[in-house]
């Protein structure tokens, strides 16, 4: 029931939109009352004027929106609908309300009846969202069906070119754009209006009227046991047969259910290509025009009974449902891929930011290292200059000390010379006590002087050793500072190497992320190609069962449907027999 409600809502939506003259999304209450009354009439729903007046009271102000009309539509009309109304009449009523407003000029190859059938097919194939559109995949499916019905070849390249030029801002075509596309003859070049009309009618019969197969065959009567030619129409649960293909004079129905079966019969009584349809209370013997047609009808009826046993919908409705589910699945996969691509892109951006942060830190570290190296070199130059100055000064002090030592040595030589002289004098004046005492006093004086000189020399030597020790300590301190600076430089170089390794690792991770992105992109392309191949397979298996006319070695008549299955003489003989039978009856 939900599927029937959705189909009805699509046609009602067209009618409601047509009544919205100023495109405000609202319709006057008087128009909605008329629309509701018409809907109740064509849908065979009891009309409740009290509920209608109560819902649209005169004290309500302003027109009613689509959302405001939906509660009444669901409660008093759609929920009461049974599957006993004429769908064509319902669609024609909604079509009448919207056609004059939207179809301002007649398309080149379409008559108004053809446009109406395209409108109904659009409602069948359109998406279940409003405003109603038909997506490119369903447009391709419909155009393929029409091309096959016209006996032409499908031009896939032409449709791909049409899709390339398709407006990216739209997800599909409206019904009026679809009618204009088919009527323009863009995909039916070389076909006249009658051929296009027949193709639309054939597709309409299959998709909307659920006609699975139709054609002329001979049927054996139940009472008179005579054979009569009838036009048979196979639908999902019934086979109707008429006097002719205009469907005006219906002669009977063959009700199909899961207990029916069909089987081939051998030729008998001059009749060939026989087969039997066995139902609950009746058995029907039918003769096809040739073996190929017989096999096609047996296969079609057998498939229909098999679908009834499984409880499955007609093939075209099941195929439409599968296409919708496939589109939903592909859309979900595409959204998932887009989400993954966004996540990868976000992760890539985070990696880029991290790399940029690391690069800035490395640049700052390199700048600090260069600055510290510059300070170290400057300090080293200053220390070297200071050490050079200290060495020069030390050399000068050493030279001065050497000069003093040389001077003291000279004085010491002079002193020794004087001691020798005094000794000579002592030997000479030994005899005189006074001279001897004087000599001793002089000698004592000289000894004191020598002791003082030796003491001064010892003091100078200790001072010189102290200066030498200070110089050694200063040199050791300089070496220690130099070693510390060298250690700092080595540690900074190691930190710089570690930062460079981290940068290389981050670059490798970025490349891996890009490779993952390429892999996801390839998977998306493979999914798109797989979807396209499946759509082609589905389109190839959903072709309308074409009627194949019987062949004959005698000259053929040419009818609107192609070569006839009999000669002129046979036609006259059949007309004569038919008139005789008509007279006897």
The number of helical segments is 14
Gap between N and C termini: 46 Å
Q: Averaged pLDDT, please?
A: 83
Structural class: alpha+beta
Integer-rounded radius of gyration: 57 Å
Subcellular location: Cell membrane; Cell projection, Lamellipodium; Cytoplasm; Nucleus
Organism: Pteropus alecto (Black flying fox)
GO molecular function, one term: DNA binding
Main location: membrane
Descriptive report:
The protein is of the alpha+beta class. Among the domains are: 1-208, no CATH class; 213-313, Pleckstrin-homology domain (PH domain)/Phosphotyrosine-binding domain (PTB) (PH-domain like, Roll); 421-456. The protein has helices at 2-19, 29-42, 49-55, 66-76, 87-102, 112-125, 136-149, 156-164, 175-183, 193-207, 291-310, 315-428, 433-541, 568-584, and strands spanning 26-27, 64-65, 213-220, 227-235, 238-242, 250-255, 261-265, 274-278, 283-287, 558-559, 562-563. It has a seven-stranded antiparallel β-sheet, covered by helices on one side. The chain has a two-stranded antiparallel ribbon with strand order 1-2. The chain has a two-stranded antiparallel sheet with strand order 10-11. Helix 6 (112-125) packs across helix 9 (175-183), helix 6 runs parallel beside helix 10 (193-207) and helix 7 crosses helix 10 (193-207). The longest helix is centred in the middle third of the chain and has 114 residues, at 315-428. The protein is rod-shaped and about 210 Å long. The two termini are 46 Å apart. The model is unreliable at 542-549 (pLDDT under 50).
Protein topology:
Elements: H1 2-19, E1 26-27, H2 29-42, H3 49-55, E2 64-65, H4 66-76, H5 87-102, H6 112-125, H7 136-149, H8 156-164, H9 175-183, H10 193-207, E3 213-220, E4 227-235, E5 238-242, E6 250-255, E7 261-265, E8 274-278, E9 283-287, H11 291-310, H12 315-428, H13 433-541, E10 558-559, E11 562-563, H14 568-584
Antiparallel strand pairs: 1-2, 3-4, 3-9, 4-5, 5-6, 7-8, 8-9, 10-11
């Amino acid at each position: 029931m939900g599927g029937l409600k959705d189909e009805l809502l699509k046609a009602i939506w067209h009618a409601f939109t047509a009544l919205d003259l100023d495109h405000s999304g609202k319709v006057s209450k008087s128009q909605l009352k008329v629309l509701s009354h018409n809907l109740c009439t064509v849908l065979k729903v009891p009309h409740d004027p009290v509920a209608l007046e109560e819902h649209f009271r005169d004290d309500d102000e302003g027109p009613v929106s689509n959302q405001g009309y939906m509660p009444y539509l669901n409660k008093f009309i759609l929920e009461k609908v049974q599957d006993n109304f004429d769908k064509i009449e319902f669609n024609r009523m909604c079509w009448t309300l919207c056609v004059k407003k939207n179809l301002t000029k007649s398309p080149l190859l379409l008559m108004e009846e053809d446009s109406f059938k395209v409108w109904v097919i659009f409602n069948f194939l359109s998406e279940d969202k409003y405003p109603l559109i038909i997506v490119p995949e369903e447009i391709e499916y419909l155009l393929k069906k029409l091309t096959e019905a016209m006996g032409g070849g499908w031009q896939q390249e032409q449709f791909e070119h049409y899709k390339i030029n398709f407006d990216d801002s739209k997800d599909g075509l409206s019904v009026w754009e679809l009618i204009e596309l088919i009527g323009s003859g863009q995909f039916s070049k070389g076909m006249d209006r009658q051929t296009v009309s027949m193709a639309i009618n054939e597709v309409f019969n299959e998709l909307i009227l659920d006609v699975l197969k139709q054609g002329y065959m001979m049927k054996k009567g139940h009472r008179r046991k005579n054979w009569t030619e009838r036009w048979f129409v196979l639908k999902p649960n019934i086979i109707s047969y008429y006097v002719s293909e205009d469907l005006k004079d219906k002669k009977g129905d063959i009700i199909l259910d899961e207990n029916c079966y069909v089987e081939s019969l051998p030729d008998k009584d001059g009749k060939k290509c026989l087969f039997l349809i066995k139902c609950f209370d009746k058995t029907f013997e039918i003769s096809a025009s040739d073996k190929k047609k017989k096999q096609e009808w047996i296969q079609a009826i057998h498939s229909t009974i098999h679908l009834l046993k499984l409880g499955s919908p007609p093939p075209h409705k099941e195929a439409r449902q599968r296409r919708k589910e496939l589109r939903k699945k592909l859309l979900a996969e595409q959204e998932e891929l887009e989400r993954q691509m966004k996540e990868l892109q976000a992760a890539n951006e985070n990696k880029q930011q991290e790399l940029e942060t690391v690069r800035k830190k490395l640049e700052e570290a390199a700048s600090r290292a260069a600055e510290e190296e510059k300070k170290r070199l400057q300090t080293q130059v200053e220390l070297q200059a200071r050490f050079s100055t200290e060495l020069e000064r030390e050399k000068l002090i050493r030279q001065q000390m050497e000069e003093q030592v040389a001077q003291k040595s000279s004085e010491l030589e002079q002193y020794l010379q004087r001691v020798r002289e005094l000794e000579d004098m002592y030997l000479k004046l030994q005899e005189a006590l006074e001279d001897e005492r004087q000599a001793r006093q002089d000698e004592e004086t000289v000894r004191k002087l020598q002791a003082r000189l030796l003491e001064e020399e010892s003091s100078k030597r200790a001072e010189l050793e102290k200066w030498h020790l200070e110089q050694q300590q200063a040199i050791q301190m300089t070496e220690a500072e130099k070693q510390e600076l060298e250690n700092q430089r080595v540690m900074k170089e190691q930190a710089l190497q570690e930062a460079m390794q981290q940068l290389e690792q981050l670059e490798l991770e970025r490349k891996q992320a890009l490779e993952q992105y390429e892999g996801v992109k390839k998977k998306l392309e493979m999914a798109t190609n797989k979807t396209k191949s499946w759509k082609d397979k589905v389109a190839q298996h959903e072709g309308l069962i074409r009627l194949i006319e019987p062949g004959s070695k005698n000259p053929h008549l040419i009818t609107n449907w192609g070569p006839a299955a009999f000669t002129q003489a046979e036609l006259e003989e059949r007309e004569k027999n038919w008139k005789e039978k008509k007279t006897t009856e």
